[in-house]
Amino acid sequence: MSMMNSSQVSYFTLAAYYDTGNLKYLYFMIVLFLYIFIVGLNVVLIVVICLNRSLHEPMYLFLCSLFVNELYGSTGLFPSLLVQILSDIHTVSASVCLLQIYCVHTYGAVEYLNLAVMSYDRYLAICCPLHYNARMTFNKIATLIAVTWLYPLLACIVIIYWNAHSQLCGNTIYKVYCDGHSIVKLACSDAQVTNIYGLIASFGTIFGAFIFIMFTYMKILNVCFSGSKQTRQKAVSTCTPHLASIFNFSVGASFELIQSRFNMKSVPSMLRIFLSLYWLTCQPLFNPVMYGLNLKNLKRNESKLTYKCLIQN
């Protein structure tokens, strides 16, 4: 293929798909059920938090932002995935591909920043309980949530702009969905600036948030070891699902970053597909399950909402 701007490329081919015959209908039903389940769980928890005044506290408002992001990320992947599973020709238009890149990148950044903000909230609640209400005001909550969303949404526009104006020598992406680094690999000219910006944006956000999370938890552990039994129980009950979420997302995101930056052809194709999808499919399911089952207030209000729905029916 001759050199052209990605804006001149009308479509990209997703080469990680292969012919599954009639099994594609089974895969379609499994993925569709997973998507419906993810949307249902996250919507229920968002509604529970919004409708119950007792849950209009910082921790639950940050959780609501997290659940909205799970809906956003899964919607950026699943509809396209469902279409491709049933399709015999695995192509996607350039505009849809760039939109998916934007959704996937912003989802990952918002997720990590949200988890970092939640660790700050837990730090104030456990280490500075007497000053918690004074420090965690409504304006501060709104500012933290706004920054969590606006920074990635604006920063990723630059990546999309450069990808849209790159000189490309191909249109084949060896994945089941579009991602920014795959477009960079197709560039004919030197894409060093785009690559460096992508590395700084990705690793800066991830490791910056990760270091901040580790700092807050070092402080929390210090208070737990020197504090009362009640303090330790409070820390365990509220921090366990948060730590589990951080670990799960970090593992999935690490798989994807390694796979996108290094040659993984020696790894079986099915394993590569699983690893590339893990962080976009498991995290939106993992978070509502973990928080819905482990946080007593959320679990109790979720049961009340279910009961009301049953009574009305």
UniProtKB/TrEMBL annotation:
The chain crosses the membrane at residues 25-51, 141-162, 196-218, 239-258, 270-293. GO terms for molecular function: G protein-coupled receptor activity; odorant binding; olfactory receptor activity. InterPro entries: GPCR1_Superfamily_Member, GPCR_Rhodpsn, GPCR_Rhodpsn_7TM, Olfact_rcpt. Keywords: Cell membrane, Disulfide bond, G-protein coupled receptor, Glycoprotein, Membrane, Olfaction, Receptor, Sensory transduction, Transducer, Transmembrane, Transmembrane helix. One of its GO terms (cellular component) is plasma membrane. Its main location: membrane. It is found in: Cell membrane. SUPFAM superfamilies: Family A G protein-coupled receptor-like. The keyword Disulfide bond applies. Residues 41-291 form the G-protein coupled receptors family 1 profile domain. It is a multi-pass membrane protein. Belongs to the G-protein coupled receptor 1 family. This is Olfactory receptor.
